[in-house]
UniProtKB/TrEMBL annotation:
RNase III domain: residues covered: 26-151
Alphabetical keyword list: Endonuclease, Hydrolase, Nuclease, RNA-binding
Protein name stated in the entry: RNase III domain-containing protein
Entries under SMART domains matching the protein: DSRM, RIBOc
Organism field: Kwoniella shandongensis
Higher taxonomy: Eukaryota, Fungi, Dikarya, Basidiomycota, Agaricomycotina
Amino acid sequence: MASSLLNLVLPPLPLDTFTLPPLPPIEDKALEKKVYTHTSYHALPRRGEERFEDEADNRDNEKLEHVGDSYLGCAVTALLHDLYPNLKEGHATLLKGHLVSNTTLAQLSRHYDLPSHLIAAPDALYNLKSGDKTVANLFEAYVAGVYYSYLKHGNTATRRVVPTPPQTPSKRRVIVDEDPDPPSPVVSPTLELPEHPSLSSASEEVRVKPTRGQAMDHLETWLRPLFTPLAAWVLQLIKVEYKRLEVSNAERGGESDLDEKAKGAMSRLNEWFIHKGKGMPEYQSSRSGSDMWTTQCIATDKEGKQWFGEATRSTKAKASTVAAYKVCLEFGLL
């Protein structure tokens, strides 16, 4: 992968053009408050080694942000593998990096209006909402909040259990003394044994506790439709940038000789068509990415046959010259 591809800076996400899923609620209100609470609210010092196992002051969203970051990375990685199984590992890593970057997550956080619920020290609140880091961390903490809330409250389904009464015979014969071949077996009289009281036939409803796998599935019902359109949009930008870099590298490398040979090709082609062609060659140019041009040269001879040449370069003039050069080669003018 070209190293400069790692320097790609995305434009703002066009979130208004996507159909994004609604924000799933966090049923646990105490957990929800913790999701929105910044460490500055309690004016707590940063936790050092001397407080390595002290969780008494764990009242902010730092640990939730840590967990949410991991779950989010796992979900997006699996999603990209499912969507683009043939995408190379390096490009998949680059795509994932853009999707879970602070810039992207901050935009998603603001889309869902999460910063408006931020709980922080009053003198720090404005700056925290303005920057991307804290706002992105808020989104990651919310991911963890959705996960843990579902583990505790998510599955409200119940299982109906109907107890089965034991099989208890009302009468049975008891052998007092047994002999393999008794002349006259001694048998006790029939004993009346008390019946076991049958269990109540009423059913009992038992709440089913969600598993961690079910909580992750619940989380992905939100994250997958959220990141699927974003992944397609970002991947397209990466492809355009990749093509631009290929052309740029070619101009600096092997195809620089082609650009040198193409000098004067437009004048030569125009001159030839003035005398022997049918009209003048046409040049159609269009943007290819943010700073590249693609030009197609279309020349029509006297018999009405059309000849085409196409090139992509960093300027419209270079692209037109190389496109004309390719048509000249077709005609044998050079």
